[in-house]
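FORM 12-B: Structure-to-Sequence Request
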């Protein structure tokens, strides 16, 4: 649906910080972590309190002073700590309210953000709550085995397809004293677990993923249900129980697991999945399994657009409601069946990591569609027969624009333009007349749009004009590297200017990145009413930087990013609150250089400079270049090989 109410007229006299907060819906999706200060700068509140905030524009200036140009990913470690606490507290409250007789622990799926610093911070901040980690591959497991040194009680859940060496690593980790549970995703993995357990004399903890009949919702709804990629059917689970019973190892079956989906926007789907899993748990307990854990998987959503609705980029429930539903459903089934309450585990990686990370980039320039002007002397009159009919029709539409005739004039302009372009293709219209048609058409559209903005209700036929006439702001980043979900699955992310928010934005724009791909753009933006086709931005000022920030990008974006056009990883800065006030940079990770990304693509970087150097010598020998020019070129080339892959104005 679209908002029929006319937008606020850009450039108005009255503008406040509250207007900016409302325009960009920051309170809705920010959940207390982000706001705007009196200077018109975005501020970050890592623990959601107003007396502990970080000026984001000040952070950008501090990074520039340290020779760190945008684009840059800024991570706020204190937000990560707060998200873990909020998750723990929500389940603690639900456990108390439902008189649940066990505890809760989250395990962070490191596929959500595999950057070492992030995983280490999650593990460190999760220690007071006994939170653990989840791995989905052998390399992830190998990293976690070392990372969990001296933490025998912290859970490690092992998902994903497993070969013999993966299972062997799990069994060896068990001998090291880790609380590690391989989840059987397909029946063949059970034989590998039993073989390696016998070889090393270990009684392993074993989990099993249940293939739920309940389907998920949203983009990943098919990750549950009969056609889901992972999990065992009921028949296979019963076979697994029988195999373990015959080996006197049924007590080793300690965990049941499900994956109801990712970014579940509908709480009903969560409830259905957990209810089904709880009944599986109760049945297996009655069969003698030594179950201690129930893993409800991922799915806890993030409200990217702040609407709180059943929309793919939102969720129609709160964290407290999610925790309450999970605990209540499991408790109800267990109480009814008379079985012990299991320890509850969730793999809520997106909800943990999304808020703590944002991407900041600078705007390089813009292209405006409403810049076309037609001097009065160039507009043909109705009796001017030397101008072709479509040109005269367009001129008439331009002159006739009035509040009562907006839709009629728009249709007339479209028809005249189409006729003119067809005539040009047939060789019946000169290039000069085609240029005049172009200017007249866009000038007419601009005139109609400006008049429509003053109406109480914008006619439906004119809804598209704002998007058609929007500016294109060219931005120094790569969608494919830094926001792959925006390109691949139309994920919405909140985007807000970092500064100048005490000024009313006077332009509406879409964003284009610096790749040479036409898909490298963002033309859908968050709104409480579906999505917006344009983003309100400020006019660019000559010689002055203009910075935008994309929020809630801490989950998946860094891991999924690619090297399209060889734009590599951006700089990363970890920002922390200072105990005595203010902020400080805890760690900086430099972005990829041209050398590095070329090596990724198997170029022999060691041969690049010598090849160019030989060419320079030939140019000097043939008199095409002076020796000084040759030396300058070689220095330039060497510097650029060691330089940032993004533009550095």
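FORM 12-B RESPONSE
SEQUENCE OUT:
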């Amino acid at each position: 649906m679209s908002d029929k109410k006319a937008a606020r007229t850009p450039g108005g006299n009255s503008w406040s910080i509250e207007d900016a907060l409302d325009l960009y819906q920051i309170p809705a999706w920010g959940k207390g972590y982000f706001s705007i200060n009196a200077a018109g700068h975005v501020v970050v509140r890592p623990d959601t309190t107003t007396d502990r905030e970080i000026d984001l524009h000040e952070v950008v200036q501090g990074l520039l002073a340290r020779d760190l140009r945008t684009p840059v990913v800024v991570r706020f470690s204190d937000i990560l700590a707060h998200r873990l606490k909020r998750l723990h507290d929500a389940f603690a409250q639900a456990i108390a309210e439902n008189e649940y007789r066990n505890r809760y622990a989250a395990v962070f799926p490191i596929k959500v953000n595999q950057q070492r610093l992030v995983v280490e911070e999650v593990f460190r901040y999760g220690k007071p709550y006994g939170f653990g980690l989840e791995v989905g591959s052998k390399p992830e497991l190998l990293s976690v085995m070392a990372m969990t040194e001296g933490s025998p009680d912290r859970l490690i859940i092992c998902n994903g397809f497993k070969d013999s060496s993966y299972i062997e690593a799990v069994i060896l980790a068990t001998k090291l004293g880790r609380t590690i549970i391989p989840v059987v995703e397909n029946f063949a993995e059970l034989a590998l677990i039993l073989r390696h357990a016998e070889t090393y004399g270990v009684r392993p903890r074993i989990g099993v993923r249940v293939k739920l009949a309940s389907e998920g919702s949203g983009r990943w709804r098919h990750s549950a249900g009969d056609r889901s990629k992972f999990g065992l059917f009921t028949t296979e689970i019963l076979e697994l129980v029988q195999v373990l019973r015959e080996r006197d190892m049924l007590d080793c079956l300690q965990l049941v697991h499900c994956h109801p989906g990712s970014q579940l926007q509908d709480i009903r789907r969560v409830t259905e999945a957990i209810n089904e899993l709880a009944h599986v748990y109760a049945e297996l307990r009655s069969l003698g399994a030594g179950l201690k854990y129930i893993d409800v998987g991922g799915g806890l959503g993030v409200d990217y657009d702040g609407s709180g609705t059943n929309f793919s980029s939102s969720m129609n429930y709160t964290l407290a409601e999610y925790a309450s539903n999970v605990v209540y459903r499991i408790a109800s089934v267990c109480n009814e069946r008379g079985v012990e309450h299991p320890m509850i585990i969730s793999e809520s990686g997106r909800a943990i990591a999304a808020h703590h990370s944002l991407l900041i980039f600078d705007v390089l320039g813009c292209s405006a569609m409403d810049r076309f002007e037609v001097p009065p002397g160039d507009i043909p009159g109705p009796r001017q027969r030397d101008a072709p009919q479509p040109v005269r029709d367009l001129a008439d539409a331009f002159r006739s624009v009035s509040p009562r005739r907006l839709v009629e004039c728009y249709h007339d302009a479209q028809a005249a333009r189409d006729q003119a372009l067809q005539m040009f293709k047939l060789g019946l219209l000169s290039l000069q007349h085609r240029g005049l048609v172009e200017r007249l058409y866009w000038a007419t559209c601009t005139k109609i749009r400006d008049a429509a903005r003053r109406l109480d209700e914008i006619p439906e036929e004119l809804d598209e004009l704002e998007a058609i006439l929007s500016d294109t702001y060219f931005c120094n980043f790569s969608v494919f590297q830094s926001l792959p979900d925006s390109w691949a699955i139309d994920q919405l992310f909140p985007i807000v200017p970092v500064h100048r928010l005490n000024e009313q934005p006077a332009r509406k724009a879409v964003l284009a990145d610096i790749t040479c791909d036409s898909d490298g753009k963002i033309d859908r933006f968050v709104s409480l009413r579906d999505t917006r086709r344009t983003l309100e931005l400020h006019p660019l000022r000559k010689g002055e930087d203009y910075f935008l920030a994309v929020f809630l990008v801490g989950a998946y974006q860094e891991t999924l990013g690619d090297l399209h056009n060889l734009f590599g990883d951006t700089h990363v800065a970890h920002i922390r609150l200072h105990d005595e006030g203010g902020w400080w940079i805890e760690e900086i990770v430099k972005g990829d250089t041209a050398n590095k990304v070329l090596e990724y693509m198997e170029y022999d970087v060691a041969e690049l400079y010598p090849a160019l150097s030989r060419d320079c010598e030939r140019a000097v020998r043939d008199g095409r270049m002076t020796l000084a020019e040759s030396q300058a070129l070689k220095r330039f080339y060497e510097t650029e090989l060691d330089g940032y892959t993004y533009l550095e104005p």
